[in-house]
Amino acid sequence: MKGSKRLWYWLIGTNVILFGIIAYSAIAPGALTKTILLPGETSHGHYQIEMRCDVCHTEGNGIREDACLDCHAEELRLAKDTHPSSKFNDPSNADLLNVLDATNCLTCHREHVQEQTLVMGLTMPADYCYHCHQETLETRPSHADFAFDSCATAGCHNYHDNTALYENFLNKHAGEDDFLAEMVGLARSSPSPPTASQLTQIAADAPESLSGDAAILDDWASTAHAAAGVNCSGCHATEVLNESANQTTNHEADSASDEFRWSRTVSLDTCGQCHERERDTFLLGHHGMRLAQDLPAMTPAEARIPMHVDAAHRQLDCNACHSGHRFDTTYASVEACLGCHNDDHSNAFTQTSHYDVWQQELAGESPVGSGVTCATCHLPRVEDDDGNVWVQHNQNANLRPNEKMIREVCMNCHGLAFSIDALADQDLIQNCFATSPSQHIESVDLAKARFDEKQRKREARLKKK
Q1: End-to-end CA, the chain
Q2: Residue pLDDT, tens place only, 115-151
Q3: How far apart are CA 39 and CA 314, in angstroms?
Q4: Under a CB-based contact definition with an 8 Å cutoff, are residues 231 and 204 in contact?
Q5: 84: which of 72, 262, 306, 392 lies 20 to 30 Å off by Cα?
């Protein structure tokens, strides 16, 4: 009888514990145990934040219709979205919307349906373009033999971002050489320095108890920070707003003054005071998107592509690539990437001509900025509307679809047709563009032929007059 009671107590206790775990998983925003409640695998673009269900879902488990735009609105604006929802508000499109509701992101982009999810996170059949564009087969003789599910073939059409694929652009750049005579590069704009004078080790204003490490001071004195007049306190001294803040800091610190407190660690927001765009775009990419949702920093161990085992538990914040005090952009351009990434594309980089010209630059045999690195392509320098040049830190901004790389990356060195061919060649992507493309995409040819035909007809009409 006593044995039966013990068994019942054990079963009751076990059930209480399990219920507690499930309840905690359902309530806690970032609980690791939340994954046991997922209805299916999350897509490649969102799996890192799957523990924050509330980012996309309401409390009643419905999907917030504006959740997608919370993260992607600016990206769509910059891409001049070719299919914005407003485009389909015209009542004449009502019949089309019955077939495919193009006003709703969730029509194409859904989570937790792995068996229906394509590489880019689409859950639609590949022939979705055909529902609205059936007339193309009649109005474009050049497309008559194309399969109706081939519209989004690499180098042809993208749903949202066609900034490098629209006909006028294709025609404008027809006939370009595969390799440009000169690399087109952008010089990065420096943040406004707090002082105009370069600082040396002697000028370091760290507290005496922390300023005895000569190696740290030497690293700092050799950086652009010191050259721009950014002293130790510029990153490490945080303002104390009240007495309670003095008493509740989590950092091991020394008091620098009554108004500031010295912090051994530097927050992302501190970096963002001078590097705002870099910080904001970092939070949109795979490296930083977890931090944007108040989750622990991403680690290589959580990636879905091969990573080096010894890098598994590195936390991906600014210092993961820009090592503390030195902030070496040369290191961040290649070594930082290859220190974590262990996929075929990354490992092949050192066997390419891109890597060779990078080594020539480092050796002083080629001009500064002539080398090609991982960062050149995946963290490119871009220019804003005001003419300021900064580094795009959202490495996903030019990955899927990869034609988004064409204008900001590929065409700095290559002609448009060559760029399209290269990005459509999967084998070439795997070997990190170590050779020339093995196939040719007809996008530029078709656009040029169409404009040439229009010109011939125009000239024929003029002759008749």
Answers
A1: 110
A2: 888 878 888 888 888 888 888 888 888 888 888 888 9
A3: 29
A4: yes
A5: 392
Number of CB atoms found within 10 A of residue 216's CB: 18
Dist. CA 464–CA 110, nearest whole Å: 56
pLDDT band, residue 5 (cuts 50/70/90): low
29 within domain boundaries:
no
pLDDT digits (tens, 9 = 90+) for 276-303: 999 999 999 999 999 999 999 999 999 9
Number of compact structural domains in the chain:
3
Same domain for 173 and 255?
no
Count of CB atoms situated within 10 Å of the CB of 296: 12
- Whether the per-residue pLDDT at 46 is higher than 70: the answer is yes
Can you give the length of the chain in residues? 465
Report the C-alpha dihedral over residues 274, 278, 283, 286, rounded to 10 degrees: -150
Please, are residues 374 and 334 in contact by the beta-carbon 8 Å criterion?
yes
Furthest-apart CA atoms within the chain: distance in Å: 110
Angle in degrees, CA 329, 335, 341, rounded to 5: 125
Burial 432-450 (b: 16+ CB within 10 A, else e): bbeeebeeebebbebbbeb
> What six digits make up the tokens of 42?
């999350």
Match 């990636």 to its residue by tokens. 303
Here the tokens at position 51 are 């523990």
Is residue 52 assigned to a domain? no
Mean pLDDT value across the chain = 85
Same domain, 183 and 240: no
- Type of residue numbered 219: D
Range 87-96, long-range pairs (CB < 8 A, 24+ positions): 96/131, 96/132
Quick: pLDDT tens for 87-118. Answer: 888 888 888 888 888 888 988 898 999 888 88
What confidence score (pLDDT) does residue 59 get?
74
* CA–CA dist 281, 278 (Å, integer): 5
Return phi, psi of residue 272, to 5°.
Answer: -70, -15
Range of the domain at 286: 162-190+275-465
User: Taking the model in full, what pTM does it have?
Assistant: 0.85
